[in-house]
Amino acid sequence: MTTAAYTKGELYIRILNAGSYSELEEELRDRLENLSAYLPGTLVKIDIGDQHLTSKQVREIEDLLLDHGFYLQDLMSNGPPVEDSAAGAEEYPFDDMPYYNDTVMICRHLRSGQKLFSEGNVVILGDINPGAEVIAGGNIMILGSLRGMVHAGAFGDETALISAYRMNPTQLRIASHITRPPDGESVEPNIPELARIRAGKVVIEKLKI
What we know:
Number of strands: 15
Order of helices and strands: EEHEHEEEEEEEEEEEE
Mean pLDDT: 81
């Protein structure tokens, strides 16, 4: 049984009695295809009842939501924990982050027309406003809102990461991969997010701290 309700800017989807993860994924895919044209950019809460997903399966659900223009806010389960087959441990996105000697920290907002470049990492204690640009050979961390253009891994590093407290860029690049919001669409996330390369494309997911 699958039900969906939309209230106060959030979409709540309940999937019960799915016999397997593949059935759960298929039911969710069918539901999203019916809703994506009407509610793009919506935060989604999913209740899967007595099932429990591995961290890899949760990431697949996040990617499926992103493919339809949605963002996972919460995944609720009453089931017992399930260990990942590979290691059984939670993956932390910064564990395998490449090391860069140089890190630039900026303690201010970047306004339209301002540009910043660093061969290493960039940390910004402020907002990147529309029309501002940040380019880094390494990773980019924004402790504020990202509404401009950022390019991490500018020298080809596909392991580079971009994180922001509020991520709504005009354009986002990692190495040679580019993503941007659809024309006319404005998303206002209210959770910290992380952008990285998965399967050859840029994906944006909830930042797990």
